Amino acid sequence: MDYLPIAVALIATASSIAIYYYLFTRAKKPCPPNLPPGSLGLPVIGQSLALLRAMRGDGGGRWIRERIDRYGPVSKLSLFGTPTVLMAGPAANKFMFFNSALSTRQPPSVQRILGKNSILDLHGADHRRVRGALLEFLKPDMLKMYVGRIDGEVRRHLEENWAGRATVTVLPLMKRLTFDIISALLFGLERGAARDSLAGDFVRMIEGMWAIPVNLPFTAFSRSLKASGRARRVLEGITREKKARQLEHGHGKASSNNDLITCLLSLTDGHGDQLLTDEEIVDNAMVTLIAGHDTSSILMAFMVRQLANDPVTLAAMVQEHEEIAKNKADGEALTWEDLTKMKFTWRVAQETLRIVPPVFGNFRRALEDIEFDGYFIPKGWQVFWTAKVTHMDASIFHEPAKFDPSRFENQTVSTTPPCSFVAFGGGPRICPGIEFSRIETLVTMHHLVRQFRWKLCCKENTFVRDPMPSPLHGLPIEIEHIASP
């Protein structure tokens, strides 16, 4: 269902009130000094619809570039009802990622669905506390113990959903694969009815996360809220069960059998009290479910799309993975040491993320009056950054439209300025799940390129954003099974 007409109607209604207020009050408010160039447009509407329309056809990057060409790398506009400053370039990215006067800001719909205690909306000491707790589970020393289990999930997925098929649709399958991996490793939820039910609610939850937050029966947001409530009850139940088990057997450090929730429950502060509340654990488990699902599944789908028409890159990947496989017994699971040898495959992944970053951009909110590049940014204004600006800058990445994994082979500060490649963000809020995503991607691609060859079903090789990128029709492909695992 297309909610754009509903969005237009709601925004138009709000605008009629806002315009009246704007016209009769603007003269009373002094204009802040030295604001960036640009226009805020009409109240409430601003440039929101123009940007959303551009993003639907993957024209968001071009829309941003045209704005930069017109106003420069720093300009003001209005997005989603809030005065906003668009900032572009490595220096601007660094300013946003490392400035303590800027906090993250999620749309109201995201906060209501994921919870008020999620790491996405925390700032200062609370953010550091929750992030530190998550990193206890997501650090490499813990993750390397799960490579074998991820390997098992991938093998089972390919056997059940790819083998024996003439065609498959890649993106939905990759999303289910990453969901299954997260369910098992992060929540300890094994295969069965409970996991299948959670998967269905998860899909419905995602559909309304970036919708207009109007809780009416016919809206995507309403369906998403209900699905979020059901998913939250499942995670609350898992948390209670694991907490009771810990109390029964005594607290202990996380072991190789622990999942994320067990790990978080075992962490204590300096007084011996549980570091995170049960509500914080559930809220951040919801965030981890979303974050660990979308980035990896989208990355792998677009790698499949690239390899379909790039025989040179595919051949190099196959050679890398066959070298690893020939030193292993049949059916033997991959190890952390095997992943360290997949350097070319990860460069292919990085180049895919450069050209098609899963996250188009994000917002920060000014906690106080700040200044950048001589321009004044008032307290309460949004600051908006986009990955595509630096990713497709020819002065940073030579021939940016060309797919060239070698550009990540010997990156140095002299060739690539800091905060130029920002597929995972940067600074204190850089995605804590980078290593988890890397493991999922490398293990999946190892088995995929050794077992299958494929070609695209759609001649038109395009994608849209809503707001995450999605290949046309979910990327249907014709597949041929070429080898046993």
The CATH architecture of the domain at 34-111 and 360-422 would be 2-Layer Sandwich
Q: Give average pLDDT, whole number.
A: 84
Adjacency order of strands in the biggest sheet: 1-2-8-5-3
Strand content: 5-15%
Q: Care to give the gist of this entry?
A:
The chain is an alpha+beta fold and 485 residues long.
Task: Explain what you see.
With 485 residues, the protein is an alpha+beta fold. It has a domain of 141 residues: 2-Layer Sandwich (Uridine Diphospho-n-acetylenolpyruvylglucosamine Reductase, domain 2), CATH 3.30.43. Helices cover 52% and strands 11% of the residues. The protein has 18 helices and twelve strands. Helix 9 packs antiparallel against helix 13 and helix 12 packs antiparallel against helix 13. The N terminus is likely disordered.
Write the layout of secondary structure elements.
Layout: H1 4-25, H2 48-56, H3 60-71, E1 74-79, E2 82-87, H4 90-98, E3 102-104, H5 108-114, H6 124-138, H7 140-143, H8 147-161, E4 167-169, H9 170-187, H10 193-207, H11 220-249, H12 260-266, H13 278-308, H14 311-325, H15 336-340, H16 343-355, E5 361-366, E6 370-372, E7 375-377, E8 382-386, H17 387-391, H18 434-451, E9 452-456, E10 463-465, E11 469-471, E12 476-481
Parallel strand pairs: 2-8
Antiparallel strand pairs: 1-2, 3-5, 4-12, 5-8, 6-7, 9-12, 10-11
Helix pairs in contact: 2-3, 5-11, 8-9, 8-18, 9-13, 10-11, 11-12, 11-13, 12-13, 13-16, 13-18, 14-18
